[in-house]
Amino acid sequence: MRIGVLLRQVPDPEARLEVDAATARVAEGSSPWVIDESDEAALDAGLELAATSGGEVVAIALGPARADQAARKALALGARRAIRVETDDPASPDVRVTGAVVAAAARRASIDLLLAGAQSSAAGTGLVASASALALGWPWIWLVLEAELEEVGPAEGARPMLRVVQELEARRRRRWRVRPPAVLAIQTGRYHARMPAIRGVLAARRAPIETLEARELGARPEASTPGLRRVALDPPAAATGVEWIAGGAGGDGGGGDGRDWGGREQDGAEGVAARRLIRRLREVGVL
Amino acid sequence: MNGAREVVAPATPDGVVLVALVERASAGELRQRGLGERLERGWRAPLAAGRCLAARLHRPLELLVVGPAGTREALAAERGSLDVVARARCLEIDADPVVARSLSAWIVRQARRARALHVLLAHDYGAIEQLPAIAEGLGAAMVSGAIGVELEPSGDLVWSRPSHQGKLVERLASTPDQAIVATVRPEGFAGDGESLGAPSPAPEPEDAGRLDVTSDAAEIEWLGDEEAEGSLDLAAAERIVAVGRGLGDPERLGPIRELAVALDAEVAGSRPVIDAGWLPHERQVGSSGVTVSPQLYLALGISGSAQHLAGMSTSRWIVAINRDPQAPIFRVAHFAVVGDLHAHASELVRALEEDPAPSS
Predict the structure, then answer these.
(1) CB contact under 8 A, B171 and A230
(2) A-B Cβ pairs (cutoff 8 Å, strict)
(3) CA nearest B144 in A: which residue?
(4) B356: which residues sit within 8 A by CB, 6+ positions away?
(5) What's the per-residue H, E or C state across A254-279?
(6) How many angstroms separate the CA atoms of B185 and B144, rounded?
(7) For B132, which of A127, A141, A281 is closest by C-beta distance?
(8) DSSP string for B288-324
(9) What is the band of A254 on the pLDDT scale with cuts at 50, 70, 90?
(10) pLDDT at A218
(11) What is the pLDDT of residue A155?
């Protein structure tokens, strides 16, 4: 079985983000770019399925040249091949466009199963895997926690069926049986980011990455005119109704009413904040 | 699921706004509690979005409700709160997981019959999973998790949705004749509560016919559901101390547990903490974990992803301690402290020990 894994780079989830207003995208230099956590889980799942079925993993990275890093990590972890689809905006505001591109890359790679993160920490639509599946004409399952291949007897000759566990709202689990080719949208929980060994990293440094232009892949014509344009990407409006509690001396941050908040000389800033917070929680009656 | 491959009719610029909602409760549960709470909570935001959009575009609002036997009657009982709905139709069916996968093709047919240009759904698992199939059947673009929509002077619509885990808001424009299928986040829709003219009772809900289950059993087979294991009832806790990714190291849970003891609270975590195995699954707060609404929710090092906020934002008093003053958690907090969670947690323990509550 040949398993494609979609790899997208997102800004480090811990980073403070700056937006390039002209493009309405996160500024290239404002944060390190890392493989999305749910795509990392998909890669882990793909490597595990390949190991148990004697199959192979094809990494499909989406993005500009920096996405080669994501492809190299997959190669270092044991992916057989890596493809990067060159696009300056891997998360089109019209998810149908992204789905068409991913589907075209999946066809080019002749895969039997496509794995992708269920929801990226960037755009986070939760729709890329399903939109890709629809463009491929394959069945899909979202929010997959766990997947394994059924054993196939030698006489059957068919591709093995997949057993899939979905984790839904309130941690309810739903089990499915799916016939590949299919698309599974993997969520974190059972699968995790892997760290490559040095030897793998060194080998991957020399490995070729096949680069394809999104245009060359022959995505569906209707996908060339997106139905949505991203006109802005901004921080949300300032929080209202929140009371900021600071640790400094004086009344500010404790409500600004000049009351004695019980801060003492020997307390550090955190100690003062702690006393102020407890006092306020008692005043509102929750402590 | 892939059955929505019909020829796409040209979008009609005068199309209606259609809100499609699915009730997954059993007939017995529905008889017991009716649809009032559903309309007031989970369905409130998609209905508000439908009202806003219909008012701004001067188009009729139609409602499609799928639910178990008794749904039509329960909806009729709530007609008073649906006064801007021009037409309501009901499909009574037990939406088990296999049937649910056939719903997209049915919603497509209903939307085309109603000449709907904009279809709005609740932002839940079933709708998100099937959204591309509905969109394809209608030639529509997709908006996932809308929180607002504005009409520009040009006639374009601009949809808002949270992005980058709530740190940013993305605004997406669609032209006047562009069909759109959107899911609407439950936390609220900008413009909810606006007055939309003189109320008049919604018409009696109609029977929306029947569903042809387009079985794709050859490709996919449902094997069953399992409810979450575990005996802890986090939803019943009066006070919760929750930690997020900012904890950094499971070795540092000790002082957090001490703080929980001092506050007589349960310890909980956001999804990254549970995924890392630092706390057991039954202590996960968020849309994929437990939804809680305690008297006190103390969020330590939790940035506040949309999926976490969905699980705790109705708590009575929310205290957030985070290093990043821009963290989305501060948007739902009542009390906010910017700083290192470990230093603040130990100082809170010390302050509570030195100055116990008068009653204890």
Answers:
(1) yes
(2) 260
(3) A125
(4) none
(5) CCCCCCCCCCCCCCCHHHHHHHHHHH
(6) 8
(7) A127
(8) TSB----SEEEEES----HHHHHHHTT-SEEEEEES-
(9) very low
(10) 66
(11) 59
In whole angstroms, what separates CA B305 from the centre of its chain?
13
CB-neighbour burial class of residue B337 (10 A; exposed 0-12, middle 13-18, buried 19+): buried
Place of tokens 């994501």: A70
CB contact under 8 A, A277 and B337: yes
Q: Could you tell me which residues are beta bridge partners of residue A2?
A: A56
Q: Which residue of A has its CA nearest to B339?
A: A270
Please list the pLDDT of chain B residue by residue as tens digits (360 residues): 444 444 444 445 578 999 999 998 889 989 998 998 888 878 989 999 999 999 999 999 999 999 999 999 999 999 888 888 899 999 998 777 888 788 898 999 999 999 999 999 999 999 999 999 999 999 999 999 999 999 999 999 999 999 998 889 999 999 999 999 999 998 778 877 766 665 677 788 998 877 777 656 568 899 999 887 777 889 889 999 999 999 999 999 999 999 999 999 999 999 999 989 999 988 999 988 888 989 999 999 999 988 898 889 889 999 999 998 888 999 889 999 999 999 999 999 999 998 776 654
Length of chain A: 287
B103: CB partners within 8 A, 6+ apart: B22, B66, B95, B126, B130, B211
Closest-CA residue of chain B to A240: B331
CA A99 to chain CA mean position, Å: 15
Q: Answer whether B90's CB lies under 8 Å from B71's CB.
A: yes
Question: What ipTM goes with this model?
Answer: 0.88
Question: What is the C-alpha to C-alpha distance for residues B306 and B286, in angstroms, rounded to an integer?
Answer: 9
**Alpha-carbon span B268 to A174, nearest angstrom:** 24
Q: Which amino acid, A61?
A: A
The reply to whether B41 touches chain A by the CB within 8 Å rule is: no
CB A98 within 8 A of CB A45: no
Q: What's the rounded Cα separation, in Å, for the pair A196 and A75?
A: 9
Q: Which chain A residues are closer than 8 Å to B218 by Cβ?
A: 179
Q: Where are the beta strands (DSSP E) in B211-316?
A: 220-226, 239-243, 266-269, 296-300
Per-residue tokens: B272: 């990254």
Question: A180 exposed, middle or buried (CB, 10 Å; 0-12, 13-18, 19+)?
Answer: buried
Contact B186, B123 (CB under 8 A): yes
